């Protein structure tokens, strides 16, 4: 191979090795977790839990592999176990992720250099070792930046989780189990189990964040606000904290304060799709539809499979008279996630404003079946009932 072709070929092979490394990384977590008693697992390659935007493949009884449709995102991933792991089992599971692709790559190089004569095959094996080695270092370094999941909670890279697990090994077993419940998405169990530890100074910040996040996932905004107000002075705010505070304030109709929270969050992290989406949603609430549209478009640039942003953008466009594009985004949101109650609610709003009361009722009822706590859904159902009552009285 000529020198002129060597460098671009090596770069291309490094890029192609990325998806292979990411796939092996998540399988390392999944395999170790199953062997260590984690039970059925959901493996996400290319996303932090976005099942709607992924291809679904079986991984044995009750286990699934989700591969994100956009291959440019395959450097990220997530494993969720039905049975939460803790202690040394969790540490071993976390280590298995970055170590498996590196071990496989080293073994492949040994085999290739002892059996293959093709320079391209040898070069690819070297590229795979380099990619796996870089991935190993990046994943084992402690990165305290929270990674928002599709479910609305946060996770951290392997290094940060290992640091926490090593620290947690000396903490009460009940606390470790509560953290494991939170990390596995069982917020109904995690929130009450974590509450007694809100005053424990040595790990207070993480506990406060987990409790507030879990309560928001449970639609218990009143208690989330109470915890946030009581312990605000104990935390140095990060992007995730400000987004959560904005969600709470928006829920209680404090729209100006909510917008200020999202502005601060974006100052800390200008690439946070959740902050853009929620700022746009709050602007929708305030009737600022023209200002909301750029927020949703930016959120979708950062996260093209963000079903809620498609639904929210669709509503803003409908309110601005862009009917075809607006309906297109809402319908695409339902293709990504057919259990998105906000998309059905937004379709109901569209039909309600057009006076199509039967269609509006169908959409509102579907949204209610999925999630009665959907923001403002009860108000819109009340408006619909008032129109129906007026229709009856005029007959």
Automatic annotation (TrEMBL):
TPR repeats lie at residues 239-272, 273-306, 341-374. The chain crosses the membrane at residues 90-113, 120-141. Keywords: Membrane, Repeat, TPR repeat, Transmembrane, Transmembrane helix. The keyword Lipid metabolism does not apply. InterPro entries: TPR-4, TPR-like_helical_dom_sf, TPR_rpt, Ycf3. The keyword Mitochondrion does not apply. One of its GO terms (molecular function) is identical protein binding. It comes from the Bacteria. This is Tetratricopeptide repeat protein.
């Amino acid at each position: 191979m000529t020198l002129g072709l060597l460098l671009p070929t090596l770069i291309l092979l490094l890029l192609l090795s990325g998806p292979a490394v990411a796939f092996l990384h998540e399988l390392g977590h999944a395999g170790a977790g199953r062997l260590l008693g984690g039970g059925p697992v959901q493996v996400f390659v290319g996303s932090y839990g976005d099942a709607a935007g992924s291809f679904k493949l079986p991984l044995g009884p009750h286990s699934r592999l989700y591969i994100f449709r956009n291959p440019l995102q395959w450097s990220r991933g997530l494993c969720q176990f039905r049975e939460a792991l803790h202690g040394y089992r969790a540490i071993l599971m976390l280590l298995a992720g970055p170590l498996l692709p590196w071990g496989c790559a080293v073994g492949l190089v040994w085999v290739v250099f002892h059996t293959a004569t093709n320079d391209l095959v040898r070069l690819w094996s070297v590229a795979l070792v380099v990619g796996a080695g870089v991935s190993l270092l990046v994943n084992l370094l402690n990165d305290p930046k929270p990674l928002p999941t599709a479910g609305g909670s946060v996770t951290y890279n392997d290094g940060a989780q290992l640091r926490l697990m090593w620290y947690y090994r000396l903490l009460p077993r009940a606390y470790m189990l509560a953290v494991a419940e939170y990390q596995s998405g069982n917020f109904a169990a995690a929130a009450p189990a974590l509450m007694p530890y809100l005053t424990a100074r040595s790990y207070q910040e993480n506990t406060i964040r987990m409790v507030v996040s879990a309560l928001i996932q449970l639609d218990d905004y009143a208690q989330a606000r109470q915890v946030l107000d009581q312990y605000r002075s104990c935390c140095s705010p990060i992007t995730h904290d400000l987004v959560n505070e904005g969600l709470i304030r928006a829920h209680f109709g404090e729209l100006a304060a909510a917008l200020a929270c999202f502005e601060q969050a974006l100052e800390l992290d200008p690439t946070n799709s959740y902050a853009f989406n929620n700022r746009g949603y709050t602007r929708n609430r305030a009737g600022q539809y023209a200002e909301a549209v750029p927020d949703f478009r930016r959120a979708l640039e950062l996260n093209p499979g963000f079903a809620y942003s498609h639904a929210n953008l669709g509503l803003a466009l409908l309110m601005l008279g862009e009917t075809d594009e607006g309906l297109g985004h809402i319908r695409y949101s339902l293709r990504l996630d057919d259990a998105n109650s906000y998309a059905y609610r937004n379709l109901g709003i569209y039909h309600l404003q057009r006076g199509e009361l039967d269609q509006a009722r169908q959409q509102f009822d579907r949204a209610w079946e999925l999630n009665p706590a959907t923001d403002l859904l009860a108000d819109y159902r009340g408006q619909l009932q008032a129109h129906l009552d007026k229709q009856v009285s005029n007959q």
